[in-house]
């Protein structure tokens, strides 16, 4: 009777243990799926923000390329204005004035876009910094360098804006008279300075774009690494609970073997 009772308990607890291990394996993979989805969502948001910053940087770069053409055209217009005859002075001056105003408007628009880009880059940096403090091995250096590049571009844009405004004011002050040699040279130098500044901005934009690509690649690498660890943990738990469940299954089998003979023995006297 004692052996039968122990066998029955072994059968009962073995069955419960086997089912519990099976449930644990299912839960482990369910949790793994949820964690993987959450990781992809978090990194997807970060990747989306980086993509928007890249798009904004591309817009600024396109604007700078257009402004470089406008600046070169203004240089030629300044030379033409200085050599114009009396009947051509008004048209030449207006052309220089128009190019200067176009530069002012274009640089100001690029500066506004850059301010939005800086806000997004700051948000990326804060997110990476917070993730690093939580223990994630994310590299914040590219985000810091990106902010530094954006600050440099802002400074250069402000410099270009000031020079373009100076040109516009000097041209307006000249009125309808032919500019003297000194004024013509000053305006020509200012126009060259705008062109040089735009060239520096162009180089900084290329550097910022490279940092964004590096940042995007780093995020993708970390995402894959984290998802890999999640899957590895799920496989580890599966192996552990499978091994534990095998033991519970063996206990269940022994209990079953202990119960069956007792049933036969109990039925033999009646037969």
Automatic annotation (TrEMBL):
Domain of life: Bacteria
Transmembrane segments: 6-29, 226-246
Keywords, sorted A to Z: Membrane, Transmembrane, Transmembrane helix
Protein name, as recorded: Uncharacterized protein
Organism: Blastopirellula marina
């Amino acid at each position: 009777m004692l052996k039968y009772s122990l066998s029955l308990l072994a059968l009962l607890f073995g069955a419960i243990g086997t089912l519990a291990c099976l449930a644990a394996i299912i839960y482990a993979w369910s949790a793994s799926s949820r964690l993987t989805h959450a990781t992809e969502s978090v990194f997807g948001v970060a990747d989306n923000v980086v993509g928007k910053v890249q798009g904004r940087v591309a817009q600024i770069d396109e604007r700078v390329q257009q402004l470089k053409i406008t600046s070169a055209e203004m240089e030629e217009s300044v030379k033409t204005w200085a050599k114009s005859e009396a009947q051509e002075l008004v048209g030449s001056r207006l052309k220089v004035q128009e190019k200067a105003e176009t530069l002012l408007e274009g640089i100001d628009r690029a500066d506004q876009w850059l301010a939005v880009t800086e806000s997004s880059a700051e948000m990326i940096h804060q997110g990476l910094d917070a993730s690093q403090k939580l223990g994630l091995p994310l590299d914040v250096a590219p985000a810091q360098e990106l902010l530094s590049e954006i600050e440099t571009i802002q400074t250069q844009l402000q410099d270009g804006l000031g020079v373009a405004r100076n040109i516009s004011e000097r041209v307006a002050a000249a009125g309808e008279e032919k500019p003297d040699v000194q004024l013509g040279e000053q305006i020509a130098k200012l126009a060259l300075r705008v062109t040089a500044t735009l060239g520096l901005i162009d180089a900084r934009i290329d550097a910022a774009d490279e940092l964004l690509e590096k940042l995007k690649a780093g995020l993708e690498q970390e995402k894959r690494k984290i998802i890999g660890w999640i899957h590895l943990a799920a496989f580890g738990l599966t192996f552990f609970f499978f091994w534990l469940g095998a033991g519970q299954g063996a206990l269940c089998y022994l209990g079953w073997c202990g119960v069956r003979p007792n049933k036969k023995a109990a039925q033999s006297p009646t037969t």
